[in-house]
Specification:
By secondary structure, this protein is α+β, with helices and mostly antiparallel strands. The protein is built from six helices and five strands.
């Protein structure tokens, strides 16, 4: 279990928050487990000042969703120990056990090579271990339905623009 910054958590799974939750809870700390396979949040209830934790796992499309949690711990330390226990418990499960059964569509694999001659920059991003955090962040962003729709529109527009440019230059848009 490793602590995350709020910014990193927000980038990976911030989209899964339900807006009204911020009215009655305060997020105190954010965590990841097993190379961000699971995320966790330590929470204080604003109403009765007890503590809780939430564990998020990836569904079939790769989106983080609630998979386990606990409520009404008297101390922050107690809730943190419970989060560690839940991480260990959920970490032993196969990823398929976190699927919710209501996912629609397939997971988009952005790093699957489909071009005959992909750009070296793409191959480096897709395969170099030092870019693992960047790949995770990009994958998390694309799983958000809003961002995915926006990116697909941008890609369609760019693909059309590249096609037009290549027609001008009589070149193959997908090779270097």
């Amino acid at each position: 279990m490793t602590r995350l910054s709020k910014e990193r958590f927000d980038a990976l799974g911030g989209y899964c928050r339900q807006p009204p939750v911020v009215l009655y809870t305060e997020e105190l700390a954010w965590f990841e487990y097993d190379d961000e396979r699971l995320l966790g949040i330590l929470i204080r209830d604003r109403v009765d000042s007890d503590f809780s934790c939430v564990v998020l796992g990836r569904d079939e499309r790769g989106r983080y969703r609630f998979v386990n949690g606990t409520i009404s711990k008297e101390t922050q330390s107690e809730a943190l120990r419970e989060l560690e226990r839940l991480f260990d418990e959920e970490g032993k499960r196969r990823p398929e056990k976190h699927f919710q059964g209501d996912e629609k569509g397939k997971k988009l694999d952005l790093f699957k090579v489909i071009a005959k001659n992909p750009a070296q920059e793409f191959l480096t991003l897709a395969n170099d271990p030092k870019y693992f955090p960047a790949r995770r962040l990009i994958e998390a962003l694309i799983t958000s339905q809003i961002i995915r729709s926006l990116l697909l529109r941008i890609c369609r527009t760019m693909k059309f623009a590249i096609y037009l440019k290549c027609q001008e230059n009589r070149c193959n848009a997908y090779s270097r």
